[in-house]
Amino acid sequence: MSQRNDLAEYLLRLGDSALVTGQRLCEWCGRAPALEEELALMNVGLDLIGQARGWYDYAAELLDDGRNADALAFKREERDFRNLLIVEQPNGDYAITTLKLFFYDAWHLPTLEQLSESSDERIAGVAGKALKEARYHFKRSSEWVIRLGDGTDESHRRISDAVDRLWRYTIEMVNIDPLEQELAKTGLAADPAFVAEQWQARVAKVFEEATLKLPEPAVPFYLNGRQGLHTEHLGQLLAEMQFLPRAYPDATW
Amino acid sequence: MYAQLVDTGVKRVKSLDEMTPEERAFQEKVDADIKIEPKNWMPEGYRRTLIRQISQHAHSEVVGMLPEGNWLTRAPSLKRKLQLMAKIQDEAGHGLYLYSAMETLGADRDEEIEKLHAGKVKYSSIFNYPTLNWADIGAIGWLVDGAAIVNQVALQRTSYGPYSRAMIRICKEESFHQRQGYDILLTMMREGNDAQKAMVQDAINRFWWPSLMMFGPHDADSPNSAQSMSWKIKRHTNDELRQRFLDQTVPQLEFLGCTAPDPDLKWNEKTGHYDFGPIDWAEFYAVIAGNGPCNRERLETRRNAIEDGQWVREAATAHAAKRAKKQTAA
Ligand SMILES: [Fe+2]
Ligand SMILES: [Fe+2]
Ligand SMILES: [Fe+2]
Prior knowledge:
heterodimer, A: mainly alpha, B: mainly alpha, globular, binds fe (ii) ion
């Protein structure tokens, strides 16, 4: 595979994780625990879907096969999606949603820190803008993990249950993916070792403040979002999200 | 209009010489277009009417997120999804902003929301209609936000300072929503296939009359209008605003190449306005009374959101208390 294709693949990974996270946040509309949270969740979702569009636009140029950003978002099958498994997990209660966002943000932030200095100007541009947004996202989700962990007995129990449920998917934030490692060598992608280290440190620090027990590092298992091997939840999410463009394939909206 | 049938609790408007000196000073200020501010003396009826009107308006912004949220996960392109998310975020902001304006009158947001969830107070009838195809999102932006703007532009000159300022800020965003909504419909009509064009006409057929009902009953059936007008809580009558909305909307409808579900709709050379057919007030009162297509679901969703979120809010409060304690100890 050419470096051009590898890079497009990498951009799809970034875009898909951002889009799927944003889509899950859309599901919260009108259902958040407070009006302030409605605003915050929608705001984070807007940032992420905006970023996804930035990554898809560039991926579409590199792929150069007639597909645009919308086609990449709305016409690919679940096996072609490259997002992290954690972001496709159902929203559950506010503890699960919060923790999903936090685990993602703790990965996203160091990733963007590196990408904002990418040797590819286009990547550096998208990441530079996204980095400011991701700083706020990380701050916000960290604060919520701490509030829920060190809040009431009930909130502590719920967020601990969420850790239990979601921890296995964190393997994808700390494992070293060969394609990303290769791209990082040329300064194009984020260095997965750096991201893993940052992720662990950030999570450990916030968990301590949240009085949460840090589990043993997650171990690899059968599924792998980067390879398009997803949980059953992604297909359902895409069926809903992609319904109109698939029902009316040539329509303009 | 997001506030319909707001009760003033007043049977008959007092004349200046029937008023106490305080009431008279207040009315003279209102007559002179001097804004009333939270610290100023105001008649109890004025305060209570405003709380009812502003809270109804705020509840409407929040409940109004639900019909749009129904299509948020199915928006057909990245651009449309981003636009709709931004719009819904604005509406949540309007809700917050209006609740704050309401709290300057001594009301409490949580208490007013509780009244809403108990079915004791209302929100705009329009949000009890279902969104059944994507064009509904366009129709809501164009017609519903459009009707809201006509009402809210008038309310920029309302006598209560914080409400008037909230309206000025909100109106700018609402006009943006309206243009985006119209753009959804125009794109579907100009560049769309037959199925898409049918969706647009279907959406207009369903939202046309409910949008006209947003302005509330005819003036003759609007017993609270006189007092609200004299307090300048309301600046124009229901029928005036409805006519203004219709006059600006019909040319836009024609430009779309669509029709209204009203055989009596036609330009009247003599009056310089559009004439329109009879409004089905039985439907309006049924929807207001709780028997609309989605009343139960809308309220249930909002009630569940607040009930399911209780442990989250409690955790935030408990954590803030722990943190404050630590800080004083340190
Ligand atoms: Fe609004
Ligand atoms: Fe609105
Ligand atoms: Fe609006």
